[in-house]
Design goal:
Elements (H helix, E strand, L loop, with lengths): L1 H32 L5 H21 L11 H14 L2 H13 L3 H26 L4
Helix pairs in contact: 1-2, 1-3, 2-3, 2-5, 4-5
Length: 132
């Protein structure tokens, strides 16, 4: 019981930190680049993908899937990075681009987000030492 409560507390604290970091980074990027393209959301999602790759490469043992439930993983991956990244904002912003008739920009956002986030996660795994 105490372990479950500790896990929930770590996820909650990580969630608080990740949410604050996401809002700060999104606002910082969007202030610099404007609102013609959701660059802030793309930045946080790619950064989060890189960081979860690094975390997975350094914390998780590929031979032991149960390690995904460690307190460190729950606090950092589920809590901090789970609240830092935002598929919901990506989805809503992409739909807004489509509704505004900006299909090319929406397509760039979709393809760019997918490619950049997958590449960032793969790079994170290399940095974390999982892939050589």
């Amino acid at each position: 019981m105490a372990s479950a409560l500790l896990a929930l507390l770590l996820v909650a604290l990580g969630g608080f930190a990740g949410t604050v970091a996401r809002v700060w980074l999104t606002e910082t990027v969007d202030t610099r680049w404007g609102d013609r393209f959701p660059a802030g959301t793309l930045t946080v999602n790619a950064t989060g993908a890189l960081l979860i790759g690094v975390l997975a490469g350094t914390v998780l043992d590929p031979a032991a899937p149960a390690a995904a439930h460690s307190l460190l993983w729950l606090g950092l991956a589920a809590g901090t990075l789970g609240s830092f990244t935002t598929v919901s904002s990506f989805s809503l912003q992409t739909l807004a681009l489509l509704r505004a008739g900006r299909t090319g920009t929406a397509a760039i956002n979709i393809a760019g987000s997918l490619a950049l986030c997958l590449a960032a996660a793969a790079l994170g795994l290399v940095i974390g030492g999982t892939v050589s």
